Amino acid sequence: QVQLVESGGGLVQAGDSLRLSCAASGRTVVSYSWYRQAPGKEREFVARILWSGGGVFYTDAVRGRFTISRDSGKNTVFLQMNSPKPEDTAMYYCNTVPGNYWGQGTQVTVSS
Residue 29 in contact with residue 98, Cβ under 8 Å? Predict the structure, then answer.
């Protein structure tokens, strides 16, 4: 079992910065990912980090603006959101491989 708790969401203006956190507990996993879901849209992949080695992957829409990282000592994964845009508004979720565990999500709203 893996428990995930996201935090750090809120209302920000376009161009500001925001950092999301995903605190994990339970067994070791291979990777953590961030997904997001906007109203009326399907959940989509945002970024992934490999727990061993720290390899990262991004969807094209956020590459160069968002950075995923981890703090192994605190078993926490972060998503640094720089220069957010209104189209980044969504509920952001943390996810694991394997196990496909999900957190409850944290809402990010970007105003123009």
Answer: yes
